[in-house]
Design a protein that fits this description.
Helix content: over 70%
Oligomer: single chain
Mean pLDDT: 83
Number of strands: 0
Order of helices and strands: HHHHHHHHHHHHHHHH
Shape: globular
Structural class: mainly alpha
């Protein structure tokens, strides 16, 4: 771990570094990579199970309905964790929170790999989702450690790690489960999160709490922050709208590819995940643009790219099947990059609103993101069944266009 250096140039060791604030922090390249990798490995934990549901059900003798509760409970745990646990980062040392959650997540994943029946696996799945919110403690930690002039770049780097964890987790778990079994994937995941905990213990500084509010007051202040800051409301609404199209695409892609004229399996859908991951790699560039020209510009660029990328899929019905696949792949690269650009810019925006409330601001923003994800998954399936892939394309394009209008609205109002 000698490559990891904490703030003030202190080499990682067993001794606790001194508490720091945003004003005194300086990030080394190694610490940035640690934060990005930690965010990606943590959030990946909630997606590993999805490609393995079939084999998990047959091994445990569980029905399709019962095993289908695994991803649902994991997502529910994650959503509740964002709402109920993430705000604690403003009240307590974020380093301690990250260490505790990483330890609990590692134990939960280990128990998942050892689960003898579906009942225990369902309980573990909820616990995995709840503790995987450590990823949402890492992002505000990075924003706090970053200096003002490089905050967008640092947040972009960490969010690239997080999004790569989401996009690549399904591909990795499918390969590992096929070769070594689904229990092995849980064990590998537990070991990777344990590594995150050790690395964070060695490399992260302590964080000075920004307030002394009680837990009830901390949660109650979320509504106050929502009412107080119009920039937060616009960020959550715009990112939620983009998330509708993002989720509608990814939740229906495998079903669409399975049908005529493609007749492709789940491995093909995983390959499109790799295309999306390629788009995510552009997030640090978005952060640099936000640092130089302001995050507002990047929100419009990202939303505009998302609209354009979704809209190109309207040409699919007039193309040969193999050309359609290339078009969908190119669109996935474009809209994943656009969605990531807007998310990085929105986080840069909200983290600058009220530094003492960064964890709570991040919680509110991601409630909007996951609300959009849920709406997109549900509506995408209904639209695909009734109007086909053209309907999904229309839904995704319209939601991204609405997000662009939200981002353009403040400029239009200022011009009057």
């Amino acid at each position: 771990m000698s490559f990891i250096r904490s703030v003030h140039g202190t080499a990682g060791s067993g001794a606790l570094p001194s508490p720091v604030s945003a004003a005194s922090a300086s990030l080394s390249h190694g610490l940035r990579l640690l934060l990005a990798a930690s965010a990606g490995l943590s959030v990946a934990s909630i997606y590993y199970s999805q490609p393995m549901l079939g084999v998990m059900g047959s091994t445990l003798g569980a029905s399709d309905t019962a095993v289908g509760l695994v991803p649902m409970l994991t997502q529910l745990g994650y959503a509740l964790g964002i709402l109920l646990l993430t705000p604690l980062g403003d009240r307590f040392d974020r380093r301690r929170i990250i260490l505790i959650k990483a330890a609990l997540l590692s134990v939960a994943l280990l128990l998942g790999g050892l689960a003898p029946d579906i009942q225990l696996l369902l309980v573990v799945s909820f616990a995995v989702g709840l503790t995987a919110t450590v990823a949402q403690d890492i992002v505000p930690a990075a924003a706090t450690l970053a200096s003002e002039h490089e905050r967008g770049k640092v947040v972009g780097t960490v969010m690239t790690g997080l999004l790569l964890g989401i996009l690549l987790s399904r591909v990795i778990s499918g390969v590992v489960a096929e070769r070594f079994g689904w229990r092995a994937m849980f064990m590998v995941a537990a070991a990777s999160v344990a590594f995150v905990g050790v690395a964070a213990w060695r490399g992260l500084p302590r964080f000075r709490p920004s307030n002394t509010l009680s837990y009830g007051a901390l949660l109650g202040s979320l509504a106050g922050l929502w009412r107080k800051h119009g920039a937060l409301r616009r960020a959550a609404l715009a990112q939620g709208l983009i998330s509708i199209g993002f989720s509608a695409f990814w939740s229906t892609l495998a079903v669409m590819l399975h049908g005529a004229p493609f007749h492709l399996g789940s491995a093909a859908a995983g390959a499109f995940g790799l295309a999306g991951a390629a788009g995510a790699l552009g997030a640090p560039v978005a952060g640099r643009i936000a640092d130089r020209f302001g995050p507002e510009v990047v929100t419009r660029l990202g939303a505009g790219l998302t609209v354009l990328s979704f809209a190109t899929m309207f040409a699919a019905p007039w193309l040969e099947p193999h050309h359609r696949l290339w078009l969908i792949g190119a669109s996935a690269i474009g809209f994943d990059l656009g969605a990531q650009m807007t998310l990085v810019a929105h986080q840069t925006l909200v983290f600058g609103i009220e530094p003492a409330a960064r964890s709570r601001l991040n919680a509110v923003l991601f409630v909007g993101v996951f609300a959009g994800m849920s709406v997109g998954a549900a509506s995408g399936s209904l639209v695909l069944a009734r109007w086909g892939w053209v309907g999904v394309t229309l839904l995704a394009t319209a939601s991204a266009l609405a997000a662009l209008m939200v981002r353009l609205f403040p400029a239009a109002r200022a011009a009057r």
